[in-house]
Amino acid sequence: MIETKDLVKKYGEIEALKGINLAIGKGEIFGLLGPNGAGKTTLISILSGYIRPTSGDGFIEGRSVIASKEEVKKIIGVVPQEISLYSSLTGEENLKFFGRMYGVNGRELKSRIEGVLDFVGLKERKDDIVKNYSGGMKRRLNLACGIINAPKYLFLDEPTVGVDPQTREHIFKNVELLKYEGVTVLYTTHYMEEAERLCDRIAIIDEGNLIAQGSLDELLSGTDVTDLEALFLKLTGKELRD
Amino acid sequence: MMVAVPIAVITVIGFALGGIYGKSGDFVKIFLPLVDLDKDSLSKSLIEVLKENKSLDLKEVEYEKAYQLVRDENKAAGAIIIPKGFTTSYLDRKPFTVRILTDPAKGMEVMTIKSFVNASAIKLLIKSLPPQLGLSQVEIKEENLTGIKGNISSFDQNVPGFSIMFIMFGMLVGFSEAIFRERDEDHTFQRLLVAPVSKSSILGGKLLARTVIGMVQMLVLFAFGYFAFDISLGNSLSGLFLTILGVAFSASSIGVLVASLSQSREQARSLGTLTILIMSAMGGCWWPLFIEPKWMQKLSHLVMPAWAMDCFFDLMIRGKEIGDVLPFLGGLYLYGIIMLLVGVKLFKFRVE
Questions:
Q1: Pair B196, B352: CB distance under 8 Å
Q2: Which chain A residues have a beta carbon less than 8 Å from that of B186?
Q3: Contact A76 B194 (CB under 8 A)
Q4: Chain A residues lying within 8 Å of B192, measured CB to CB
Q5: pLDDT-derived band of residue B87, with 50, 70 and 90 as boundaries?
Q6: Which domains does chain B have, with CATH numbers?
């Protein structure tokens, strides 16, 4: 289970998160929606131990992401919004390197590399240098590097940005398979149809505030809108954010 | 930076070479101990002639002190010994000898001293001696007190000097640029920081890899210098190895500091280049330190190459053992440790 308690993050005068309280159940795909600059990436960065909150705390399986950061890092996987790969290494070398960072070695590492390459459909291109990959292949390898440690909790930060429909569909299937294997997924996106299709529950945040959370049906009930996009625009407004 | 870097380099090099091109008052004076064992009229005349040379800082000392200054303390590149019987030989119209004790590690200074002594002897002959006594009557006998080989070539200065400079380019610019690429372009730092490894392990691993690469690069350059140009490697290969390791480590550490002080890859490149050129000029990579003004020589150990060049000269040219260079070796490693600690303290693993 993932929980946050009164999570606040300030960057100087700017308050990126204003006391977020969330609870994500085990095995759920939890969607985090919000306009640009809403605080989605900041929330994932805090939960993954990448940045410290100004106040409040996050808990994964009851362990604080501040006090037990190293333990938490062992059970989570992170797929950052930016492609985070060594462009001069091959796909397999990237996986080998990041696998070793999690203490996976030898046969275990070899087996996991084969598994994740198969999972993301890059087995045939594993020996190619990453800079020669297409955008979609890089996205898939980015995902593969995030699950090389077989995490129990996976944070996906806009994993389908800039990819073609085929790659997006492939990533959706990957996420569904991971859920089937029992992985809890925190998924941020701008695309409402992704959230509608994949997520068991959804939270909408805007300007650092959590403004709605629940299942799709729960979110839509009692409103005059019929889809998530309309609800999103109703809650967050139509003004440009960047 | 495009203007600041050349201005800074021109300024440092201008000051460094001021002793050669500067006003008369700025000329570098060569410290030259002199032992007068003769204490007679001709030796006194020779001393007077030598004193007329404004480029020499002549000081009469005892015989043992001359050895100490050249051989043990390396404070003087050479010392003149005017032997007993110098004047008598002249009066008897026999050939007479001037001995010069030398430290070949200070090759250029030694050459200058020898030429000054030669010139003074000629002057003395013209002024004092009967015409039938020619220059062939004056013998200048050199005694190499420290060098493990007699003739030091320019490669003995240039191989270590330029190796240090190029290692700094590889380590310092390469390291800091790699840091920016990984943090801001490849974003791999982000992935490393969410893995269960400490920040010190991440930075330490990168530092170790760069240090090993730099060390191998430098070993290859020294091997090339040995086989192609017959440079001396000295008597202590372990000392040489530790010095090379220290150079690679310190250069990488300075790379961490440069990366910490820079806001972008381009800034790191400019700051790195500036640092390397100034360190090379001040630290004696391009020319022997003695040609620099005294005030600059005193500041030379503020930069890493000066410590390294002290080690290399003592080990490779003077043939000293590792124990003899421990103070310089300690300075080299301490320099790297201080740069690393400050660099790590200021280093930003992420930009918020």
A1: no
A2: 84-87
A3: yes
A4: 101
A5: confident
A6: 23-144 (3.40.1710.10), 155-346 (no CATH)
